[in-house]
Design goal:
Four Helix Bundle (Hemerythrin (Met), subunit A); 55% helix; 6 helices; mainly alpha; 185 residues; globular
């Protein structure tokens, strides 16, 4: 399938989302909501605090999930050229990568959540309008990707869902360690 065949339709021209696409979007929305909910009633300072042995904070987790979702949507549309070559990352690239996991000076929780909402909207529009969920691209170069492996748009969406769900669980632990609040229970 060529890139032109993967160009999403205008959302206004797209039919109602049903079936598999509706299931994918509903599942992704549920896990996004769990992740966002962990930040309820927090200050910017609290969103940037590390509360466990890990480097993760709530704002940084949302930044990370936002960047990952954005990169994978780029992959669906443009293939591996939309993603970094992880085998050739420089120290500067690694430092920038690490910044996706923390709140930086001047960043606000409201800003991080707004960025996430915009990326989510674009992803949802893509899922609704992409002509073919079976379109495949080879995975980008990375130590964790087997050379020659290809993923369909469907597989990428499942990966985004899994990544979001995994980090929503991390966020719940960080929030509980911060002030005892839980997402559920």
């Amino acid at each position: 399938m060529t890139v032109n065949e993967l160009t999403p339709r205008d959302p206004a021209e797209a039919p109602a989302v049903t079936g598999e696409r509706a299931d994918l979007l509903e599942t992704l929305a549920k896990h996004r909501n769990f992740l966002r909910f962990t930040t309820r009633d927090l200050t910017d300072e609290q969103a940037g605090l590390r509360t466990t042995a890990s480097e993760l904070c709530l704002g940084g987790l949302i930044k990370h999930v936002t960047a990952v979702e954005q990169n994978w949507v780029g992959f669906i549309l443009n293939g591996p050229s939309a993603m970094p070559d992880f085998t050739a990352m420089t120290e500067a690239d690694l430092a920038q990568w690490a910044d996706w996991f923390r709140m930086l000076p001047g960043e606000t929780l409201a800003g991080v959540l707004a960025d996430y909402a915009e990326v989510a909207r674009r992803t949802d529009d893509l899922v609704a309008t992409l002509p073919d969920l079976d379109a495949v691209w080879p995975l980008p170069k990375a130590p964790w990707n087997e050379p020659g492996t290809q993923w369909s748009a469907r597989r990428v969406l499942l990966h985004i869902i899994a990544e979001t769900a995994q980090h929503a669980g991390h966020a719940d632990i960080i929030r509980e360690s911060l002030d005892g609040a839980k997402t559920m229970g």
